[in-house]
Amino acid sequence: MRYRVFLAMFAGAALTHSAVAAAGAKAEAKTEAAPQVEVSEAWVRGAVPQQRATGAFMRLRAGAPLRLVGASSPVAGRAEVHEMRMEGDIMRMRQIASLPIPAGETVQLRPGGYHIMLLELKRQPGAGERIPLRLEFEDAERRRFGVEVQAQVRALGAGP
Ligand SMILES: [Cu+2]
C-alpha cells in the first residue's frame, strides 16, 4: 500500500530529465518497498577543451532516508561528491563521503553548493549534449543501489 502511495507521488514528476528508480531487486516478504529516489533537472556544466574537471548538478528527492555515496560517468575518469564551504573568506570545495537525502526533502546540488565533481574528463562535454551519470545511493540498512540519469550539458557560465 505504501508502495502505491510512493508511485502516485512520483507519477506527477515525469518531467524531462527526471528519473524514478526502484532499488532492491530482491523483494522479500515483510520488507518494506524498495527505496525510491527522484532525480530531476540534472545538468552538467560545459567545459573548455583543456579543462579536466566540471560539475554536475540536480535535485534529489527520496521517499525514505538515503545517502548519495558516489557517482560515475563514461566521460570522467572518476567522480566525487563535493561540498562548498567557507574557509576564512575563501570558498573552497572538498570531497565528502556521503550526502544525506532526508525522506521527503528535496536536496539541491547546485553551483556554490553540493555538486558532483567529474574529474579526469575524457572529452569536452558539448552544450546541449546529454551525459549519462550513474548515482550511487545507500539506504538506512546500508544497501547500495545505482540510479542512471541523463544530464544535459549547459554552456559554460550557465547557472540555474
Ligand atoms: Cu567540486
How much of the sequence lies in strands comes to: over 45%
**Integer-rounded radius of gyration:** 16 Å
Distance between the termini: 37 Å
Order of helices and strands: HEEEEEEEEEEE
Compute the number of helices. Answer: 1
Number of strands: 11
Q: Main beta sheet: strand number and arrangement?
A: 11 strands, mixed
The coarse silhouette is globular
Average pLDDT value? 82
Low-confidence stretches: 1-32
Binned, the helix content reads under 10%
Structure description:
This protein has one helix at 2-11; strands at 19-22, 36-45, 54-62, 66-72, 76-87, 90-95, 99-101, 106-109, 115-121, 130-139, 144-154. It has one helix and eleven strands; from the N terminus they run H-E-E-E-E-E-E-E-E-E-E-E. By secondary structure, the protein is mainly beta. It starts with a helix and ends in a 6-residue tail after the last strand. Helices cover 6% and strands 52% of the residues. The chain is globular and about 40 Å long. Mean pLDDT is 82; it is low at 1-32. Strands 1, 2, 3, 4, 5, 6, 7, 8, 9, 10 and 11 form an eleven-stranded mixed beta sheet that branches. The longest helix is centred in the N-terminal third of the chain and has 10 residues, at 2-11. The structure holds copper (II) ion.
Topology:
Elements: H1 2-11, E1 19-22, E2 36-45, E3 54-62, E4 66-72, E5 76-87, E6 90-95, E7 99-101, E8 106-109, E9 115-121, E10 130-139, E11 144-154
The chain binds copper (II) ion.
Key structural traits:
160 residues, mainly beta, 11-stranded mixed beta sheet, 1 helix, globular, disordered N terminus, binds copper (II) ion
